[in-house]
Design goal:
21% strand, Helix Hairpins, cytochrome-c oxidase activity, 6 helices, binds copper (II) ion, alpha/beta, disordered N terminus, six-stranded mixed β-sheet, Immunoglobulin-like, CcO_II, 283 residues
């Protein structure tokens, strides 16, 4: 077990070094030429990275072992050095080993995998709920907890708008989903037409949006910032234009946003029932 803990440690270190520094105001988006995961922003993503690292190193070891074995066999048993081939067709010991070894390896992988699946699937006591509905071609968000907040239609920005607003093209939207930091957020995911998937890589969240079905997932973001994702189920001609932008704000700012009927403007919050609901959700 200590060996695997050491393996995990080494793996997560190498993973971290591959992550490039993000711009200050953006906490989760793809990086140019990036090939590793985005930096984790939630407990689920932390666990996902650990399981990935474990499985990744096991796979590397298997690939190396098989490659070396193949090379050895090709050289050692080539026709020139082995003119009279062996007629052996069975070796009980070897067959037992190559049956048991993969079973043991699979057990090492399946236990943490199942733990992760349960963690993603079993919602903890969530504090607020948002509903994400996939349309052709945008995401629509509603806040069942806060009646005063109208549905948010989150449309992609075109290239000019994205440049003007200093947001990444095909990731930035005109109206992000707004959630508080350090809060367990339940996400209800569905669709009105065909299948989509609501996915934010740095949250470790990818949930199918299926018409007639409401799927549940959850996240709890460590830090304030803007996190990007995309529709991750090929849904049609404008699939690439269904970005997901999540703006994570402080709990106080979120309470003010709710009280202002879903606006970050300077207007003084007057909706006291919304404030108390938001504060109740916060506590
Ligand atoms: Cu889609």
């Amino acid at each position: 077990m200590r060996f695997f803990k050491a393996l995990l440690g080494a793996a997560s270190l190498s993973g971290l070094s591959a992550i490039t520094a993000q711009a200050q105001d953006v906490a989760g988006k793809p990086s140019e030429g990036g090939y590793w995961f985005q930096e984790s922003a939630t407990p689920v993503m932390d666990e996902l990275l650990k399981v990935h690292s474990l499985v990744f190193w096991i796979i590397c070891a298997i690939v190396a072992f098989v490659t070396i074995l193949m090379a050895y066999i090709m050289i050692r048993f080539r026709e020139k050095s082995n003119p009279v081939p062996s007629k052996t067709s069975h070796n009980v010991l070897i067959e037992v080993i190559w049956t048991i070894a993969p079973v043991v390896l699979l057990l090492f992988m399946v236990v943490p995998s199942m733990q992760l699946l349960y963690m993603q699937d079993r919602l903890p006591e969530t504090e607020i709920t948002v509903k994400a509905t996939g349309n052709t071609w945008n995401w629509q968000y509603t806040y069942p907890d806060f009646e005063n907040i109208d549905e948010i239609i989150s449309n992609p920005l075109d290239e000019t708008q994205a440049t003007e607003q200093n947001k990444p093209y095909l990731l930035g939207t005109d109206a992000p989903l707004v959630v508080p930091v350090g809060t367990k957020v339940k996400v209800l995911v569905t669709s009105v037409n065909n299948m989509h998937a609501w996915a934010v890589p740095s949250f470790g969240v990818k949930m199918d949006a299926v018409p007639g079905i409401i799927n549940e997932t959850w996240f709890e973001v460590y830090d304030e910032g803007t996190y990007y994702g995309q529709c991750s189920e090929i849904c049609g001609i404008l699939h690439y234009k269904m970005p997901i932008e999540v703006k994570v704000v402080s709990k106080a700012e979120f309470a003010r946003w709710v009280a202002n009927d879903g606006s970050f403007g300077d207007s003084i919050a007057t909706n006291t029932s919304a404030i108390s609901t938001a504060i109740a959700a916060r506590d």
